[in-house]
Amino acid sequence: MNIEKSIKKSLNDFAKQTGLGIRIQSYWILASVDQAFDASIIIEVGGLEYPFWVNYNQQGKRKTKAEKIENVLEMGNLTREEKTKFLETKKPFLANNGEFSIPLTISNIKSHEARISKTPGKIESRAAENTLPSSESLAKFIHLLAATSQSAKRTQKIMADEVGISVAAVNKYLKELEASNYIVNDRARIRFVDPGKFLDLWAVEYIKKLRPGISKITFDHYDEKQYREFRAGSVMLKNGYWSAAKAADVVMKSELPERFIIYSDKPQEVVKDLRLRPSEAGKIEIRKKFWDFDWKEKTQGIVDLPLIYADLIDSGDPRDLKTAREIREIWIRSL
């Protein structure tokens, strides 16, 4: 595919210019009149990965341009050599070879913030705060903020109890998130500076810090009739909550799921209720519920939208990635 070769060439060129590791995570062509093209790329900086959405609209055979990209690259995580190479390019685009372009938003929350100015091709710089640390407890706290974004502001004591951390840790995380320009901690409520950026912070922290430690068991349906019901029916769980594609289908009638994720405090009860069969390669994964607070979507029998988004992103399936973007927009509009 020509467009695939063009993307790979541009990414490789940019990687050589900047010293960054860049790879395509997934891409696909949508069957539509305007041949809309979606891609997900990963920019690797040290041991960290930054997922970027890229949206294209193709008009004719050669004119393909990116409409937007949702995420930021944190320049504070670059080495001095990488940062120097990146700033030397003086380009506000990850790639621009005449076929398409990917506008790149960059931010430095460590020592030398760089941002794209209104003048094409110009990068401005200024001092900024230290980079945000990463930990399992911080990931849980970020989840609380994202999942309860429409609720009244909680006291630090309540937030500490819900996450299972100290009040001092809550105070510390709020200050760090505010210093890193993720939130504004007003007296009446906590606001997100850039909701999309905050949601991606949550997804990255969840995948790296939380998901690996969540206990899980896989099962299979007991017959094909049950599997069809799981896919297309409205199945309320007595002792658990759907996530990923099944939960997304409840929210917006998306692609019918092939695999299923359930979160529960009582996984054995879920197994008994649904009469599931243990299977290492099963399509139904039951995970231990890791949070202890109420959320808006609970009455629908599903987990919160940010967790649905993170699980869809984590799957890597092109259909799930497409659904994730739609869930992302629904969550942002709800704020």
- Inertia-based shape: globular
Low-confidence stretches: 26-38, 55-75, 90-130
Radius of gyration from the alpha-carbon trace, in angstroms: 21 Å
Helical residues, percent: 25-40%
Q: What letter string, H or E per element, gives the SSE order?
A: HEEEEEHEEEEEHHHEEHEHEHEHEEHH
Distance, first to last CA:
40 Å
The residue-averaged pLDDT reads: 75
Q: Please report the number of helical segments.
A: 11
Oligomer class? single chain
Biggest sheet architecture: 5 strands, mixed
Structural class from helices and strands? alpha+beta
Query: Widest sheet: strand order?
Result: 14-15-17-13-16
Total strand segments: 17
Strand fraction band?
15-25%
Structure notes:
- This protein has 335 residues and is of the alpha+beta class.
- Helices cover 39% and strands 25% of the residues.
- It has helices at 2-18, 80-89, 136-147, 156-163, 167-179, 195-210, 224-232, 244-252, 267-274, 305-315, 318-334; strands at residues 21-29, 37-45, 48-59, 63-70, 73-74, 93-96, 101-103, 106-107, 113-116, 123-126, 183-185, 190-192, 216-220, 241-243, 260-264, 277-278, 284-288.
- The strands form six sheets. Strands 14-15-17-13-16 form a five-stranded mixed β-sheet. A four-stranded antiparallel β-sheet has the order 1-2-3-4. A two-stranded parallel ribbon has the order 5-8.
- Helix 3 (136-147) packs across helix 6 (195-210) and helix 6 (195-210) crosses helix 10 (305-315).
- The radius of gyration is 21 Å and the shape is globular.
- Residues 26-38, 55-75 and 90-130 have low confidence and may be disordered.
